[in-house]
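Exercise 7.
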Amino acid sequence: VLDGVSEAATHLARAVDDQGYFRYMIDAPTNLTLRGYNWPRHSGATFFLAQAAAVLDDPFVRYACLRAAGRLRDDMMRSCGSLRCITPEEPVAEIGSSALALIAFTEIVRTGADGGYRPAIAELAAFLRSQQRPDGELMHMYDRAKSEPIDVQLLYFGGEAALALARAHTITGDARDLDASRRALARLSGAGWSFFGSRYYFSEEHWTCQAVAELWERAPDQEALAFCARWHEYQRRLQQDADDSPFDAEGSFGFGPLVAPRITPASSRGEAAGALAEVLLRERAAGRHDRDAELDLVQRELRRALAFVLRSQLHPGPTHLFADPVAVRGALPGSPVDWQLRIDYAQHAGSMMIRWLEVDALGRAAGGH
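Solution. The predicted structure, written as tokens, is:
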């Protein structure tokens, strides 16, 4: 797993240019950089590089991380009313870029890579708090021309913001950050997902589950934990066995044999499974054993997803098919038949591997496996 982290991080670090931009998407066979860019994914990839730099103590990865982070802080933080957010020079900003940048900046400070990001952490946390409604929900867009929030909700951003504010609190010590995170999580796992049939259908909640784990020692939420546990029960019904598909799909998540298994869903669900396992391990270490059976199921889900992702990594992959095998080594493709390499594919896979390492260490310390 450490080799997988190193390969993914080195691939992303090689892809950060002197200006702090990533090669956002690469066609693996030709090594051509494809068009497009996405700032939330830039922020997420920066977060993983900060994680990996600390785990590996690798200066090459760390300096690439700081170039990418510097691009966010020094060039992409712009006025959003009286506050500042991460956004291109456009009239409307979304909160995902700011939330994921905040997550990255907290990791940079937490691991000692650069304490100079503390002011930016406080600024981005203040912006996210300003987007929160009284019921805990966040407004996911901001009209910079009118200096007012736009009350719409988009996929992923709510969970990212809840996690970002929880992590910000560990750096700022500002009780408002903790309260905003706690209320956002309660909304995501409670009234915000309450409708007929809501117990039998779920959205993408991998960031939400990570927020549960991040808050557990400071603001534990049993309802949010139960919500996350139900989400994983739902996901385990979708986790494929070896004979479910003509592809190498063991441990992946899918809907049938005719769809090639996607790599990133296994990575993101692995991140979330690691978060839930962390909480359950801490509960067991505290002498509460009523959820040990569930812990075993979650750890098995995580191990199977991890194995699938590691098998899918270009480590080095079929090098005879690549124009430049070194340039794509360590990356993750979209699927066995999708050879585009996007930065968030490597980010989610690498972050899941690091989460597994943390859970494995916690389990060994608790006398488990």
